[in-house]
Each structure stands twice: as C-alpha cells, then as structure tokens.
Design a protein that fits this description.
single chain; mainly alpha; two-stranded antiparallel sheet; 2 strands
Length: about 280
C-alpha cells in the first residue's frame, strides 16, 4: 500500500472524525488503528499486536525520554485541570472580561497571555486555551482563529525564550551536532542566545500574529492566516500522495531532474504570491 492512496486513508479518517465529533483523542486512536489494520491486511489481532509493539518501542526509545515526555505532558494537563477546578480559570476569565471591552482587545489579551506562558508549548496551549476559550466565545471569535493564535504563538515564544523546554532541546541538538573546535570557545547556552536573533520564523510569526490582530485581517469571515493555513495543510496532504506516487514510479536517472523542476516551480510560486496585492 506504500505509494498509493491507501497511505492517506488513516490521516483522512482522523481529520474527518475530529471535525465531526470534536474529539481529538478518539479520532487519533481510530486513525492509528486504521493504519494498523491496513498494515496487518485487515487482521485485527495482528493490528493490535503491531500497534502496542510500536507504542512500546516509541515510549522506550532514546533512553526512555519519550515516555518521560509523555508523563510530563500528562502532569501539565493535570495541573491545568486542578487550576480550572479550583476556580482560577473562571476568576482570570472574569478579570479579563471586566477590563477588556472590545473584540480586538480580547484577541490582543489572548496573544499577550500566551506569550507569558513560555515555559512549554503544550502547557501554553492548555492554559491559554482553557482560560480564553469561554471569553472569546462571548466575543464571537471563531475557535479556528483562537487555535491559530494559541498554537502558532506557543511554539514561537518557546523557541525564543532561553528558559523554556524548547531551549533545552535546541541546546542538546547543538551539543550533539558541534565539536569543541566548531564552538570556538563559546558554551552551548551563549551560542543558543546568539542564534536566537537569527531565528526568523518564530520572530516573524509573532509579528504576523499581532499585525493580524491589529489590522483585523479576515478572509470570508475567517482570519486570513487561518484560511491560508487550512489550504496549506490540505495542499501538503495532497502533495504527499502525488510526490510518493510519482517519485516512486520514476526511473532513477529522472528523479534528480524532477526534483530540480519541483523546487524551481515552488520558488516561482513563492515569488508570484509575493507580488500579489494585499491581503493575498
């Protein structure tokens, strides 16, 4: 089934069920089990066996750090749930609602609150989403727009702040990829701080989020960035299928030509969209 339409079926089923039921965990499990069933050629016992075997290898991989990350995320969820049950979420939401009176102001507060939750991107999404969702609903702010602001900002902030979980991961990657000679006397932490100023993607993401809020950019009743992100996801999904199918069927001597042509076409499209007038 590799390189065929069936490779996309688990992802499509997951997305469709998530959109219909609004239940992410159930949708993910059904999508994963569908993939396991396809891999096992329809045998449910073999599918369950393969599923738990892959899960065990994943959790024990990299010295058990994957399992530790899972436990860490679960503990963050427990912390957010405790804050919610204790009334902290409602109290903070009431304070925001009493001091912010406009839709644009509430979006700015959402982005600002998300920027303060820089310790971890998962904790950022859980805390900011739990606090701001009831208030933004009152201002008729779409859940999709709220998810874009929280999701994009959480990663961008965590990458740039030197005391976040992402900073630790980046520093470990730098340490494993550079020799002492390449460090040229710098320690890993100072090198990370110097490289943060050149990390243009998260910087521009933060700028774009606040610019989108300030300018009130909407697209068919939807935030412009949200619309482009949705189109990008579906385009990426479709391109994966065609890329796997076409490249796998090409002869070896033609693959390099096809890849060069694809890169050139993508760059031309990037230039074309850059020349289009706003908001496109």
């Amino acid at each position: 089934m590799e390189g065929t339409f069936w490779a996309l079926v688990p992802a499509l089923i997951t997305i469709i069920i998530a959109l219909i039921t609004k239940q992410v965990y159930i949708s993910l499990f059904i999508g994963i089990f569908t993939g396991a069933m396809l891999f096992a050629h329809g045998n449910p016992l073999t599918a369950f066996e393969n599923l738990f075997e892959v899960m065990a290898k994943t959790l024990s991989g990299d010295g058990g750090s994957h399992g530790a990350i899972l436990i860490f995320i679960l503990m963050l969820g427990v912390l957010v749930a405790l804050i919610d049950k204790a009334g902290g979420t409602k109290a903070m939401g009431n304070w925001f609602a009493s001091n912010v009176k406009s839709r644009k102001g509430m979006l700015a507060v959402t982005a600002g609150f998300g920027a303060l939750m820089f310790m971890d991107d998962y904790f950022n999404r859980l805390a900011t989403g739990t606090v701001m969702r009831p208030i933004t609903d009152k201002y008729r702010i779409s859940r999709v727009k709220l998810a874009y602001i929280i999701g994009s900002l959480s990663v961008a902030v965590c990458v740039l702040v030197p005391i976040s979980s992402w900073a630790s991961a980046i520093e470990s990657n730098i340490a494993s990829g550079l020799t002492e000679e390449a460090l040229n006397g710098d320690n890993i932490y100072s090198l990370y701080l110097k490289s943060a100023a050149c990390n243009f993607y998260p910087i521009l993401t933060i700028v774009f989020i606040f610019a989108t809020i300030a300018l009130g950019m909407d697209f068919f009743g939807m935030d412009y960035k949200v619309a482009t992100t949705i189109m990008q996801i579906f385009g990426y999904l479709i391109s994966k299928f065609f890329a796997i199918k076409i490249v796998s069927e090409l002869k070896r001597e033609n693959r390099l030509k096809f890849m060069i042509f694809s890169v050139a076409l993508a760059e031309l499209a990037l230039v074309f969209f850059g020349l289009l007038p706003q908001p496109f």
